[in-house]
Amino acid sequence: MRRRLTSLSRSSLTALFAKERRNYGISYCTEHQEPPCPQIKTEIPGPKSKELFKEMMGIQQCGSVQLFSNLERCAGNYLADADGNLLLDTYTQISSLPLGYNHSALLNAFCCDSDVRALVNRPALGVFPSDDWPQKLRDVLLSIAPPGLQHVMTMMCGACSNENAFKAAFILYCIKKRGGKTTFTDEEIKSALQNIPPGAPNLSILSFKGLKNNGAFHGRTFGALATTRSKAIHKLDFPSFEWPVARFPEYKYPLEEFKCENEKEDKECLANVEEQFERWEKKKPIAGVIIEPIQAEGGDNEGSPEFFQGLQKICQTRGVGLILDEVQTGCGPTGKMWCHEHFNLPSPPDLVTFSKKMLTGGFYFKPEYMPPQPLRIFNTWMGDPSKLILLEKVIQVIKNDNLLQLVEETGKVLKCGLYKLECEFPAMMNSVRGRGTFLAFNVVKPNLRDNIIKTMKQNGVLGGACGVSSIRLRPALIFQPKHAEIFLDILRKTLRQLK
Amino acid sequence: MRRRLTSLSRSSLTALFAKERRNYGISYCTEHQEPPCPQIKTEIPGPKSKELFKEMMGIQQCGSVQLFSNLERCAGNYLADADGNLLLDTYTQISSLPLGYNHSALLNAFCCDSDVRALVNRPALGVFPSDDWPQKLRDVLLSIAPPGLQHVMTMMCGACSNENAFKAAFILYCIKKRGGKTTFTDEEIKSALQNIPPGAPNLSILSFKGLKNNGAFHGRTFGALATTRSKAIHKLDFPSFEWPVARFPEYKYPLEEFKCENEKEDKECLANVEEQFERWEKKKPIAGVIIEPIQAEGGDNEGSPEFFQGLQKICQTRGVGLILDEVQTGCGPTGKMWCHEHFNLPSPPDLVTFSKKMLTGGFYFKPEYMPPQPLRIFNTWMGDPSKLILLEKVIQVIKNDNLLQLVEETGKVLKCGLYKLECEFPAMMNSVRGRGTFLAFNVVKPNLRDNIIKTMKQNGVLGGACGVSSIRLRPALIFQPKHAEIFLDILRKTLRQLK
Lengths: 499, 499
What we know:
Two copies of one chain form a homodimer. Chain A has 15 helices and 16 strands. Chain A is α/β, with parallel strands linked by helices. Chain A has three domains: 1-89, Alpha-Beta Complex (Aspartate Aminotransferase, domain 1), CATH 3.90.1150.10; 120-398, Type I PLP-dependent aspartate aminotransferase-like (Major domain) (Aspartate Aminotransferase, domain 2, 3-Layer(aba) Sandwich); 404-499, Aspartate Aminotransferase, domain 1, CATH 3.90.1150. A seven-stranded mixed β-sheet of chain A has the order 3-11-10-9-6-4-5, sandwiched between helices. A four-stranded antiparallel β-sheet of chain A has the order 12-13-16-15. In chain A, strands 1-2-14 form a three-stranded mixed β-sheet. In chain A, strand 15 (464-466) and strand 16 (470-473) form a beta hairpin. The first copy, chain A, is globular, with a radius of gyration of 23 Å. Chain A starts with 9 loop residues before the first helix and ends with a helix. Chains A and B meet through helix 1, helix 2, helix 5, helix 6 and strand 3 of A and helix 1, helix 2, helix 5, helix 6 and strand 3 of B. Chains A, B: One of its GO terms (cellular component) is mitochondrion. Chains A, B: Pfam families: Aminotran_3. Chains A, B: Its cofactor is pyridoxal 5'-phosphate. Chains A, B: This is (S)-3-amino-2-methylpropionate transaminase.
C-alpha cells in the first residue's frame, strides 16, 4: 500500500497510528506520511509559536527556542510546527533523530509488555540490573561496536559519557604511574576527599581548537566543558580546569587541490600535540586526549585519516588514552556506523563515546580501561534500558533498509549539488566538506550565514549553523536523494534571494 | 475485585498486564499482586544471578551488582530476582522508584498515542520543544514546585541538575560583581575559551562534610564531584577543583535528650561556614552553597530547621545562592513533597535540585537566577519529555492515594519500631533518625553493618548502607505499615542471629 497524505489531518493520523500499534509487526514505511514538499503557511516562528515562547519564557530562559513542533503532524524528514508549517528537517533536533519523526518501528517499540516494564521500572543498573540486561548489551550495543572493541558502559548523555571516559583514562594512567599497583595510600585517600593531590592529582585532558578559537565541543558539565573550545558563551563565568589545547587541522578546499598544504597542516598539528605533551609534563601531565572525528559544533572541521593515525601513534607512545568523541558522528551519518572507520587506524581507539542518534549515552573501551574496582565509574541510573529498546529498533531499521548505503547515496547527491552551488555562488559560499550526509560548507560572513538559515527556514528547510560561519547538514538516516534535491533547490532559491 | 496472587506465574501476570493496558483508565492497585511476605528460595545472589554476573563482567566492571531482577515478577514493594526470590525492597533502586514496581498507573502511562509520540520523538527541548511542553512544565513540575518557586529547568540526572544550578549561581554572582552589567569584555571572552580568569573566574561552591569526612554527595560529574565529600573511592585519581568545605552538624541522639549540645553544634557549624567565606574570599570566593536537607549517601546526617534557617541567612547576607540538593529527599519520602518544607525557611531557597523519584532531573529557581542570555544553561536534550509523562502519573497517584499521609503513618510505625530495637539491641545499633520513611540508624561497627545488610537480604529484605556505618531506609511511597512490620520483624530476627 502506497498512499500519500497531502493533508495530514489530526484525526486521520491518529487513527492510522492507533491501527499501526494494534498491528504490531507489520512493516509500514513512514515515508508514506510525508508531504511531497515543504508547506509554509505563516512566517516562522508563526503566531502560535510566538505565543508559546512567551508562555515558556515565564518559566525558564528559552531564548534559544526557534519554534514549537506539533509532534502529531511530524512525519519522516518533515517537522510540523505549531502553526501548521511543514519543514524539511536537515538538523533533526541537533543531530539526534536517527530515523526522523514518528517512524513506525519506534511508534511500535513498546507494544510488548516486557518492554513497557523496562520503561517504567527503571533500575539502578550498577546494582540491580534486570536479568535480560547483559544480553541486551550484547544484542544492541555490542552488535554495532566499533571494530575491535567488545566492552561498553552505558550513560545518559554525551557530556556524561565523555566525563566517564576521562575517568577511565585517569584511572589507567594512575595505575601505570604506580607501576601497576591498584591500591591507594592513606595520603591519597585523605587528600582525594580534600580535592588536592596526590589523591586528586594534577592531571589533564588534551582537547583541540581551531585557528579561530572555534574548536572542540565535548559537552557542558564542568569536566567536559574544560575540553570544549567552541564558543565563549558556553563557558563564561564558570570556573574551569586549566587544561592543554592543541591545534586541530584547518584544511584548504577542495582537498585534492591543496594536498601538499593540507599534509603540511597535519604535520604541524601533530607536532603541536607533541609540544603540548612536553609543555604540560611538569605542570599537569596529559592523561588522555579527546577529539571528535569531525569537529561538529566548532565548524565541521575535518581531520584526515593520516592525522588521526598520527595522533593515535603519539598517544600509544606516550601511554595515554585516545578518546574518540563520536557523540555526533556515531550511528551512521558519515556512511559508516562510526566515523573513525574511515580512518583505517592500525588498532581500535582506546575509548569511543556516543549519544545523540544512539539515543543512549555511553562509551566503548579496550579491556585495559576497565577499572580494577567497582563504584569508580558509577552513578544511580547508569543509563536507561528504555533507550536501548528504541536503539534496538533503530539498528534493525538501519540494517533492513540498508540505511548506511542510503546515506552514501544521498550524501553523493548532496555533496555534488553543494559543489555546483559553490561554483554558482562563489562570492557567498565555499569549502564544501564532509562524509556521507554529514556535510557542511562555509558562508563568507557570519551575518550572511545567519540570514541564509533564516531565509531557508522561511522557504521550508530547517538547517543548522556551526563554527563561526558554517552551515551543517544533519539529516536523519532516512534522508533520500529526493529530499536532497528539495534541499538543494531551496538553498539555491535562498542564495538567489540574498545575492 | 481483590485478589492475591500467591504464585506469580509468568503467563498469568502477562495476561493481567495485557488486560490492564487495554482497560486504560481502570484503577487497579498493584498491591494485589504483592506476595504476603518475602519468599527466599536460594542463597542471594543465587546461581542465576551469579551466572549473569560473570557474563556482565565480560562486558564491563559490574562489581557493584548485588543481584539481577526479574521485572516480570516484581510487584509493588517486592523485588523479584532471577532465582525466584521475592525480597521486600527498602532501597528501591537507590531511592529512585516512587511507586515501587509495576504500578498499574505507570504500566498504563503510554497507552495514549500522543504520549508514545513524546517518547519516540525526543526533541532538543531548548530549540524545538513540542507545543504542549510549556503546559506540561506547568501541569507537572510547577504543580508540585516548592512553595514560592515558579521557575524550573529540566535536566537528565541529579549530577547534571546540580552542575547547572552551580552555573546559575555563578552567573548571578558575576552579574552582581559587574554591578549589574550582563555583557562581557573582550578579555573575558578570550580567556573563557582558554579556561583562565577573568572569563573562567576563580570562584567556588561550598559544600559540607561530616566530622569523619563522610559528608555531602552531589553527584559524580567533575563539577558535582568537587562538592561530593562522602567516599574517597568516588574521587581517587580524578583531578578536582580545590573548593571549600564546611562542617555539617553531627548530632547526638535521641535529639530531645541532647538539645543543648545539638544547638551548640548548629552554632559551631554556622560559624564554620562564615569562616570559610572569610578564608576563601581572596583565593576563590564562594559564589554558591550546596547542601542536602539530609546528607543521604554520607550517612543520613540531619540538619535542624534552625541550622538551615541560619545558613539561608548567611547566604542572603553574603549575596550568594543557596542550592538545596533534594535529589534524594524530594518527591515525598520525608512526608512532605520537599524536605526543606520541614524547615520553615523565611523565604524560598534560591535553587532546589531534583532527580531520582522525580524520574526527571532539573531544578527550581528564583527568577533572579534566570540567565540573561540563552545557551548558557543548555545542552542537546535538556531533559526528556517521556519522564514527565511518567511523573505526571506519579503525582496523580500521590494525590489520589494520599501517599504523603501514608508516608507519615508508615514512618511512625517504622521509627517507633526502630526505637524499640535500639532499646533491645543497644550494643548493636543506635541513633535512629530521619523524617517520614526517610529513616536511618547507626550500627556500632562497619563490618557488623555490612553483615546485617547481607543477612537481612538472606532473610528477605533488601536494605541500603550509607555513611561509615549506617543503614538507611528508602522504601517506595507505597510502603505501608504492614510492610514496616515485616521489615521490623526481619531486622529483629537478623539482629538476634548476629548478636
